[in-house]
Amino acid sequence: MSGLVHVVDDDASFRTAIERRLKLAGYDVATYASAQDLLDAAPDDTRPGCILLDVRIPGLSGPELQSRLIAAGSNLPIIFLTGHADTPTTVQAIKAGAEDFLTKPVSSELLLDAIARALARQDAARSQRGRLDGFRVHLATLTQRERQVFDLIVRGKINKQIAYELGTTERTVKAHRHQVMEKMQVHSLAELVSIAERLGMLDSNGG
Amino acid sequence: MSGLVHVVDDDASFRTAIERRLKLAGYDVATYASAQDLLDAAPDDTRPGCILLDVRIPGLSGPELQSRLIAAGSNLPIIFLTGHADTPTTVQAIKAGAEDFLTKPVSSELLLDAIARALARQDAARSQRGRLDGFRVHLATLTQRERQVFDLIVRGKINKQIAYELGTTERTVKAHRHQVMEKMQVHSLAELVSIAERLGMLDSNGG
DNA sequence: CTTCCTATTGACCTTTGGGGCAGTGACATC
DNA sequence: GATGTCACTGCCCCAAAGGTCAATAGGAAG
Fold first, then answer.
1. From start to end of chain B, where are the E strands?
2. Please, what's the b/e burial string for B46-75 (b: 16 or more CB within 10 A of its CB; e: otherwise)?
3. Which residues form the domain of B187?
4. Which are the contacts of B34, defined by CB distance < 8 A and separation ≥ 6?
5. Over 70: is that where the pLDDT of A196 sits?
6. What is the distance in angstroms between the Cα of A87 and the nearest Cα belonging to chain B?
7. CATH number for B96
8. Helices marked H in chain A
C-alpha cells in the first residue's frame, strides 16, 4: 500500500539523499535526472504515488513538466521542491493544482506531510474518477441511436417526443430505451439522469 | 459595470496612491486601515467587486481575514498584495482560494489584470450560484412531508416503495409528488433529479 | 452464403405516473 | 367558532413506461 514517489532533480547527490529519506519512511522511490526522463518513463499513474519536482532543472522546467502532465491527463499529484521560490512561479504552480510548494532544505516532517496529503488527495480523486469511468465505459457501448435516445431521455423528453424528433415510432424508442437502461446498468430514470449530470452532459439544459 | 475594489492596508499613503490608480482605471474604491474595519463595514458581496489585501497589517492578518470571510460565506475574491512574500503564506493563501498573490511594488498592468480576473471569476461564480439559489428557494417552500417524498423520488424510488417507507398510501404519495413538481416548478422527473444532483443531494446514492 | 448486430415495428398486456373529485382529521390562527 | 394549511385517502380514468412474442431489413464479419 506504500506509494511510489517520483523524484525529479538534476542534483544526483540530492536525489540519493531524498531517496534514502523517503525509503526510510516506507515509500518506494523512482528518480529522474530530468523532466524528459520522467516523461519517457511514462510513470503508471494508476497506482498510488506522487511527483517531487524541482523547479529549475535542465531542459523542461518544473512548471513546464506540470503543464505537459496536465495536458496528458495525468493524475499524479505534484509537490514542488526548490531552492529558490519566486512568488509568481509559486502562485502559478498552486493554481495549476500542485499539491504543495516547498523550499530546500525541507524538514522531513513538512515533506512527509505533503506527500501524505498528496497521496490522500490522489486516492480521493481516483475513487471519484473510478465510478465515473465505469459509467463512461457503459456509455461507450451504446450504439449511435441508443446514444441519441439517451440524450433525449435524460433531458426529460417523453417517448412520444423522442420518436418525433428521431423520425421513428414510440415502440422503437421503447426498444432503444430498454437497451440504454440495460447497458448503463441502471434500474430507474433517476439513476440515469444522475449519471448524465455527473458526466457533465446536462450543463446547459432546456427542459 | 465598474467593480468596487476594497483596499485593506495600514499604510495611508499607500491606500491613497492605490485608490488613485484604481479610480483612473475606472473602478470604485473603498479603503480600510485594518481587517476589522472591513469586517465592520460588512461590504456588499452581491455587487461586482474584490478585495485587495495586505498580508501584514495590525490586528487581524490578511490570511486571518481571508479565513473569516470564507467562514462567513463571502464570495468576494481576494487579491493579496504584500511587501514581503514568504512561500508557505503564499501557498496557503492560493490554496484557500485567493485570486492572486502580488508583491509590492506592483505594476499597474499586473494589478489590473489580477482585478479583472477576480471580477470575471466572481461573476461566473455568482451566475452559477444564482441558478442554484432559485432552486434552494423553491426547496425551502416544501413541507416536511413533501421534502421526504422529494428525497425518495430523486433516488429512483417508485410511488409504491415511497408509500411503504413513509407508512402511507400510494395515492397520498401521488398528491405530495404533485405538490413537489408544482413547487419546484419542473415538468419532468429528469429535471427534478438534475436539480437534486446539482444541489449535492445525491452524493452517496444507492439506487 | 450464413451469422450476428443494429434498427425498426406491430400487437397486446401490466405496471406506474399523474390527476379530477370529494371527503376526513389534526392543528394553528384570528 | 370560522378559516386555513397540511396530511391522508378512496374511486375512477387516462397517459406513459416497460415487457413479451414475433418479424422485417440492411450491413459487417466469417
1. 4-8, 28-32, 49-53, 78-82, 100-103
2. eebbbbbbbbebeebbbbebbeebeeeebe
3. 141-198
4. B8, B10, B57, B58, B59, B60
5. yes
6. 7
7. 3.40.50.2300
8. 12-24, 35-41, 62-71, 87-95, 108-140, 144-153, 159-166, 170-183, 189-198
Name the residue with cell 530546500: A104
Strand partners, A103: A82
B126 with B150, same domain: the answer is: no
* B61 assigned to some structural domain: yes
Q: For residues B128 and B27, what is the distance between their CA atoms, to the nearest angstrom?
A: 24
Alpha carbon distances (Å) from A183 to A141, A169, B53: 7, 21, 53
The residue type of A71 is A
Residues A83 and A104 in one domain: yes
> Which tens digit of pLDDT belongs to each residue from A94-147?
999 999 999 988 898 999 999 999 999 999 888 888 888 888 888 888 888 889
- CB spacing of B202 vs A194 below 8 angstroms: yes
> Cβ of B190 and A155 within 8 Å?
yes
Q: How confident is the model at residue B205 (pLDDT cuts 50, 70, 90)?
A: very low
In tens, the pLDDT along A43-73 reads: 888 889 999 999 999 889 999 999 999 999 8
Same domain, yes or no, for B74 and B160?
Answer: no
Q: Looking at the structure, do residues B107 and B146 belong to the same domain, yes or no?
A: no
CA distances from A131 to A128, B38, B85, B203, B204 (A): 6, 44, 41, 12, 12
Residue B151 φ/ψ, nearest 5 degrees: -55, -40
* Residues constituting chain A: 207
**Is there a single domain that holds both residue A94 and residue A172?**
no
A186 contacts on B by Cβ (under 8 Å): 207
Q: Are residues A119 and A170 in the same domain?
A: no
Average confidence (pLDDT) over B58-77: 92
* Residue A69, in any domain of the structure: yes
Query: Of B89, B108, B130, which residue sits at a domain end?
Result: B130
Q: Band of the pLDDT at A1, cuts 50, 70, 90?
A: low
On the question of pLDDT at B154 being above 90, the answer is: yes
Q: Which residue of A has its CA nearest to B152?
A: A190
Query: B90 contacts in A (CB within 8 Å)?
Result: 87, 90-91, 94, 101
Residues B54 and B82 in one domain: yes
B39 in A contact zone (CB under 8 Å)? no
